[in-house]
Amino acid sequence: MAIIEVNKDNFEDEVLKSNVPVLADFNAEWCGPCRAMKPMLEEIAKSDPGYKIVSIDIDDQDELAEDYEVSSIPCLVVFRDGEEVNRSVGLISRDAIAELMEG
After folding, report:
1. Could you confirm whether 75 is annotated as catalytic?
2. Which helix (H) or strand (E) is 100 found in, with range?
3. What is the largest distance, in Å, between two alpha-carbon atoms of the chain?
4. What's the CA gap between 93 and 82, in Å, rounded?
5. Domains of the chain: total
6. Of 6, 23, 24, 31, which is the active-site residue?
7. Could you tell me the pLDDT band of residue 48, with boundaries at 50, 70 and 90?
8. Exposure string over 78-89, b if 16+ CB within 10 A, otherwise e
């Protein structure tokens, strides 16, 4: 599955109402660590059908970033059954991303 671009219009359907866990990547085009993490997230999205990965550009979706108190990026937020269950801020490894999803 590819990474899904999410905005305020489809956030509820893609994230909060998802029937699988969701890893939300809050990022920005100008963010170097975000760009460094993107290939890892794309690889995971293609290889792991157990959950969905979505991308949220904080410059375009500042309201969502504010709603979820994202003040530093990259910020990965894990949602299960519409609730935030885990979060990580900053560049992390592929293994750490997997651990974040399991936690």
Report:
1. no
2. helix 94-102
3. 32
4. 25
5. 1
6. 31
7. low
8. bbeeeeeebbbe
The per-residue pLDDT for range 36-45, each reduced to its tens digit, is: 999 999 999 9
Structure token digits, residue 29? 């085009």
Q: Which of the 8 DSSP states describes residue 1?
A: -
| Token duo for residue 30 | 């100008």
Tell me the pTM.
0.95
DSSP state of 60: T
Which is catalytic among the residues 6, 23, 24, 34? 34
In CATH, what number is assigned to the domain containing residue 8?
Answer: 3.40.30.10
Residue 29 has pLDDT above 70, yes or no: yes
Q: Residues of the chain with pLDDT > 70: what percent?
A: 98
- Domain span at residue 49? 4-102
